[in-house]
Amino acid sequence: MDEIGISQKTTILVVDDEPKIREALSMNLELEGFDVACAANGNEALRKLTEEMPDLIILDVMMPEMDGFETLKKIREVSSIPVILLTVRREETDKVRGLEIGADDYVTKPFSPNELVMRVKALLRRSRMPSTLPKTKIMVDENLEIDFSRRSVMVRGERVHLRPTEFRLLYHLVSNAGRVLTHEAILHRVWGHEYRDEDHYVWLYVTYLRKKIEKDPKNPQYILGERGIGYRFKEPIEP
Fold this sequence. Notes:
Layout: E1 11-15, H1 19-31, E2 35-39, H2 42-52, E3 56-60, H3 68-78, E4 83-87, H4 92-101, E5 105-108, H5 113-127, E6 137-141, E7 144-147, E8 152-155, E9 158-160, H6 164-175, E10 181-182, H7 183-191, H8 199-213, E11 223-226, E12 230-233
Parallel strand pairs: 1-2, 1-3, 3-4, 4-5
Antiparallel strand pairs: 6-7, 7-8, 8-9, 10-12, 11-12
Helix pairs in contact: 2-3, 6-7, 6-8
C-alpha cells in the first residue's frame, strides 16, 4: 500500500449480515495489508465505529432490522468517515439515494474483489490527500465568497457546509473559471481515474453544489452546463 501513501495501520470496517461475504472481504483486504473489523448489523456497526475508530466503512444496504441506508444516516450524524455501500440493487434511484444520504461510493453485488479493493484505495487516497489549495480568498461577486485556505464558502453572508467531495469539485471548477471541464476531466480530477464510467457522480454533485451556492439552482449563475460536454464556472473571478 506504500504507493498510495496508506499506512499499514489503516482499518476497514466491513458491515454485512452474510458471514461468507464478511469472511471473503476480510481475507482480500487483509491480503492488501489492511486491518479489518467486522459487524453483522447496523447496531453493531455503530458500536464498532466508536470502538475500532476505522478509516473507512464498507456497508451492505440489504440488512434486516436497520438497513444500510438507515445505518448510514446514523453514521453521518457523528462522523464524516468514508463509506462505500454494497447492494444487489442496480436501480439508479438507489445509487442516488445512497449518495444523497452521504455515501462516498457505491458498488453493486456481485463485484470483483479486486474492483472493491481498488475503490477502497482510491477513496482513502482522496480522503487523505494533502491540501494543495492556494491560500486565496476569492470574491466571486457580492453573494459568493470562497476562502480556499480555510475551506470556507460564504453565500449571501452565511457560511455553508460543503462535504469534502463537494469542496474538491468546487475547487476544480473555480480554478478553471471560464473554461469548460468535460465530464471525464471532472471525474479524473475529483474522484480519480477509477471512476471514468461514473458520469452520474458529476451530475449529482453539481446538483448538490448548485443547491448550496446558487440563489436559483434551476437557473444557475455560477456553475454553467455545456450540454453533452461538461461544466464551467462563471468568469471573471477577482482575487
